[in-house]
Amino acid sequence: MTIEDPTSLWDYRRRVAEQYRRARESGPDESAWIRWRSERDELLSFHVQSPIPMDRRSVGVHLPFFPYDPAWRIEATIEIDEPVDLTAGHSGSDVTPMIRFGWVSLPESPDGAAVRLALYWLDVYGGGVFLPFRDATNGSATYGGGRYLLDTIKGADLGSVEDRVVLDFNFAYHPSCVHDIRWSCPLAPVENTIPIEVRAGERL
Fold first, then answer.
1. Once rounded to an integer, what is the mean pLDDT over residues 14-21?
2. Is residue 157 part of a domain?
């Protein structure tokens, strides 16, 4: 995607980062999530850098989400691993270089299987932590290429509690390519698949 107006993109990313800062400061409750959703809908409705086409913003944006579920807010310990160079495929023709540097473990799935998700470092200027994931809702209730949970380059980060990172799947969101094919977005690697339905976060 060509950046035609870097100052407006700068402003857009600042506003996204501020939304997550307010969510971090509000603490782990549904009211913070409701405010985050409202602020996000407003930003996507009116900002020039919104990925949603103008003709779909005429009456305002109200993105659909699963109901809030506190069970999907998880504080996970990071397991640092030997770095592995990888390339994330895109919804378009692009690719994104990244480094898998560690893992986070989730509570066991209903069938008793342990679930680990990889943490990636986006290997571009400045870098940033990236955690996309797939789950059993993909292709039906959610986008087939997965959703995003952490993307610190864009400010999508709910912080940590002591030495544990906060992973709140109620804040999971779709990549921009879901809203408009002019965007080319990294897809979640297959290794980051949760083998059950994550009925939390943004849905189709």
1. 97
2. yes
Question: How many folded domains does the chain comprise?
Answer: 1
The mean pLDDT value for 34-59 works out to: 93
Q: Is residue 78 part of a domain?
A: yes
Instruction: Give the residues across from 65 on adjacent strands.
Output: 202
Considering Cα of 81, then 151, then 76, then 189, what sign does the dihedral take?
negative
**For residue 68, what are the CA distances in angstroms to 17, 73, 172?**
21, 10, 11
Tokens in use for 119?
A: 């943490």
Q: Which domain holds residue 88?
A: 6-192
Quick: pLDDT tens for 59-87: 789 999 999 999 999 999 999 999 999 99
Dihedrals phi, psi of 27, to nearest 5 degrees: 90, 175
Query: Is the distance from CB of 63 to CB of 50 less than 8 angstroms?
Result: no
What pLDDT, on the 0 to 100 scale, is given for residue 110? Answer: 62
